[in-house]
Fold:
Amino acid sequence: MSMATEHAEEVQHHSHTSRWPIWIGLGIGAGMFGFLFFTKGYTPFGWTAVLAGAASIIYGLFGWVRDMTREDIHEIKHNVKEDFKNIGLTGMLVFIPSEIFLFGSLFASYFALRAHTPDFYTNHGEAMNVLASIIPYFNTICLVSSSFTLHFAEHFLKHGKQKTFQLLLGITLVLGFLFVGGQAYEYLEFIKDGFTIKSSIYGSIFFSLTGLHGLHVTGGALFLTYIFAGSFRSQLSKDKHSVLLAASVYWHFVDVVWIFLMMIIYLRWI
Amino acid sequence: MQQGYALDNSHGHHKLTWRDWIFTTNHKQIGILYIGTAFFFFLVGGVLALLMRVKLAATGTDILGITSEKYNELITLHGTVMIFMWVMPVFSGFINFIVPLMIGAKDMAFPRLNALSYWLLISGSLLMMSGFVLGGLPDAGWTMYAPWSILSPGIGSDTWILGVQVLGFSSIFGGVNFIVTILRMRTTGMTFHRMPLFVWASFVTAALLVLAIPALTVAVFLVMFDRHLGTTFFSGAGGDALLYQNLFWFFGHPEVYILILPAFGIVSEILPVFARKPIFGYKAIAYSSASIGAIGFFVWAHHMFTSGMPASFRIPFMVSTMIVGVPTAVKIFNWTATLWRGKLYFKAPMVWALGFITLFLIGGLSGIFLASVPFDIHVQDTYFVVAHFHYVLFGGAIFGIFAGLYFWLPKMFGKMYSDRMAKAHFWLTFIGFNMTFFPMHQAGVLGMARRYADHGPEFSDINLFMTIGAFVMGLAQLIFIWNMVWMFRKGPVAGDNPWNSKTLEWQLSSPPPAENFETPPVITEGPYEYGLPYGPRVAGAAAGGGEQDHDFDRGISR
Structure:
């Protein structure tokens, strides 16, 4: 990196500006407006707004991530001490209670609906066979073992074993995406058997809960992908891996939610 | 990530361009953007309220073309705009501007995320207002109760759902940011027990934002599914409308503390400054905020006493609701004790803060009435409830907001408004407020139902009176606007510390420099050591504590 670009970066910090938040913030709004246009029947407007919104979000996210990467590289190169150690991890630890209340509300809805629906579990025909199939067990194994591989990846990074760290992080990613694939396959099987979000109350809450969880796994996997990519540009070192700690706490959390999902929704132990 | 840069503090103030504003990540600019945006929506929500009052001034006519259907849209948007687009964002603005200064930080913990929160507020607000353009405004009340929110035709409910969802994300990100800022960015010596009480209140508010909003997220997502994916969560075969109410109020009750706790914080800042006394019962006020926040998660079903919930649930919820009165009363007593034998200066912030205490006390007491199941069953969905929540949300939150604005505007812009106009604003608002909302207690007990577009002839006179009061209140806000115009055009320089206050934000220039503190301040004592012969509490800072009472008059600007 030349001196000139470095200087430009610093100037940007001094003026306290970032171009990216407005792109993401208004992009989300534009995408939502797309949905409104669809419900209103303005289909071409709808597509325009959704695509423009998505493009805007992606543009903003890439810029944001690029800036973060540059700052990380700058900090590592100049050996800058972090003012607030692991502040990203603190942010994640504050955010996770919010997620607990999110899933908690949906689980509570599940129990409330189950309590006053007499034929809650019955009347799903063939679908129950899939529910009892091997797929959820496969998914469980993928996700639970990915928590372990990630934990050990972190461990090796702390001990400066960069290659082992990358290998384990890569395996974690593969397991994460296998889970997402497994769930997609399971959904297709359900739909084939006529078990959908509107086939019954059970179907409604089943797809809402597992879908919300699946979105979280996908988000977590993308987060880890960003870190994996960054590990090749030496953004992480044994002294500086706050972002990995944050991602890993999130990943373990998503894993724990899955264990509850498995026990409550699939195995019906509770 | 930004903290690692060696920062140059010497550049001071430069004229901000429009690019600086829309791309800003500085907590002070974002705070001002929040407050400005919110104030715009206060005016929108106020006009909606005046239209409602016009409709209710007479019976049996569609005056100004306000049909019963239009009236439903008015009540829905009025409530939504005032709660989600005025009180919540204006407090986010205060927290943004003030908290990093008060704790001696350079900025928020996540400046870019902070900017994102603001732009999500804009997106959410545009979605919420989009019905005016797209045709089809929400009409199921600010609570969006099922099944009408699901059955209501048109896109009104959809605009509300998507809007509130985006506003919710904005608030959750904001809440996380505030908490991490307070947890991690405090300067040396700024222990939890030396934090100003506004910081305490902000911390609890942020915790409520983070924990309560997810329930709303879930509730409105499921309404969305019911509307568009053919599910039957809340309506139709097997649907459970009560589940919606439970989810909504699990969010909705902590929400009302989100709307009032920052005002408690503001008043706790203002009283010691203008009474020239240390705050009475610092820890009691701090911990009562925390306990109000905690108890707030166990009272939600008191909104549903008449919903057909099992009778055995009513008593525990009645008891837990009444318990909230204890920490709230602790605050009121402590504020009164702070005033006791103080040297009171009746400047605009103080006058508004005293108005706050008066009106909030009335609202708090009618809240105790409403917690009682037998009384609540009698007045459920009557104007008594409307009176109660306007006394706490207007008399409480909004009086607190104006107290805070008059207190900190000189810090934000470095200019002073007219104290006379600010007091005229106060008295007209206070009189108009009581004319509008006090008779609602009576109308409610006599059985006038809320949310109806019309009323029986026996309520004609009282409603006309209330409408006149509402217009007095509306007029009063024009004085505020004029005062602001005057301040920006001709207002005198406010000075760095016009109130001779001891909290950290006043030890900086007005407006504060971009990087706040050149060197992080070191804190050696609590924030409210007024009238005591203590040395400066900021080690090494020239301005600040230490002055005796009589210096206050000299320091004040007129």
Observations:
- Chain B has 17 helices and two strands.
- Chain B touches chain A through 79 residues (CB under 8 Å).
